Amino acid sequence: MTTTSSGLPQADVAVVRELAAKVAELAALPVQQERSREWQALNGLRPERPMAMIDEIPWHELAAPGVLAADELVMRTTHPFARELETQFLRQLYRWNHARVDMVVQPYLDVPKVINRPGWGLKITEDTIEQAGGNDIKSHHYSDQLEHPEDVDKIRLLEPSLNVAATAEREAWAHELLDGVLAVRMQGLSAWNGDDLTFSLWDDIEMFRGTEPILLDFMDRPEHLHAIAARLTDVRLAELQVLEDKGLLGYGMDLVHCTGAQTTELPKPGFVASHPRAIDNWTVGRSQLFVSVSDATFDEFVPGYYARWYQRFGLGYFGCCDPLHNRIDSVRKIPNVRKISVSAWAKVAKAAEGIGPDFVYSRKPNPAMVAMDEWVPAIAEKDFADVLAATRANGCPVEFTLKDISTCRSDPKRLWEWAAIAERMTRA
User: Are 410 and 397 in contact, with CB atoms under 8 Å apart?
Assistant: First the structure.
């Protein structure tokens, strides 16, 4: 096997550059600028129209032999880094060909730096049950590591750092694979679609304790929960400051929680690409545990802590799968929130009344519609119609994101048809 000076197989370089050239062709299309402008308008609360995306796709099903269009996802490279880029490009091209909706293809590739994050003093202790078929979704049962007041001291900052050698190696590989085709942007941590700059305070506490101990403590020991939340918030903010001081944050996010992140409001004045700040970034927050408690408990335990995190950032997205229709007033106490999640379990009209023109109404249709025994397009059409009626009546900027798709029953046409419905109804 012939390799380059950096150890990449020549055959892998050829494969990746071929795919990158196809991506570059798409990135050069005028429609990319049009879509970016539309996302900027939506995220600036001056929408030109509703926007839509599809993400968190069950790729393990779509790439399985015998599935329609699975040949478009066949891997040919062998080197781990080349396979990483090949996977990303194949999926990007697949989405463009079959389920693009309002995706934007950029003329660059973001390559994550290798950042060591030792954590916050605790390691998750859990039992899991995995689904069959290669799906990443699992069931979790966590051990309680913060049962006693003295356990709060276990939460502490373990300082993050850059792995200089590993980052330099990835950068060299990226340039060898992409120079002359796509630009390379070495990136620190961001909240584009993961947990790097996501503030999931209570989700994190739940992973350190389990659900039942927290629910009991809401009634029996609220002061203990406040002590844990305050300590973890302090540690997260201290870690954020270290990341910022060391230049380990990212910039120029294209996605935030599976939605378009393009905005004219970021980065803020004083931005330096080699040293991004929290204020130049979006953040994401969620508190899904609180689906099981009262609105008053949510108001006591969420806005105050989240406000301390969000005030460091330029813009924020709040919510996930939990219904927030009765809690918009509490979310308003969190600064810099721009998008609010309206999950499949939220009351559509009630959420629209609370959100109004002040935030982006970020609708999450129920992914079960593509997982049923039979795919019924009318279900998707009704969801769009109901949401569009409610948001128009209340002046809400609105986006739709079909995500958390654990299965489409190995029938990718269900996803393609949802995307076609989304394009038709958001452009009507």
Answer: no
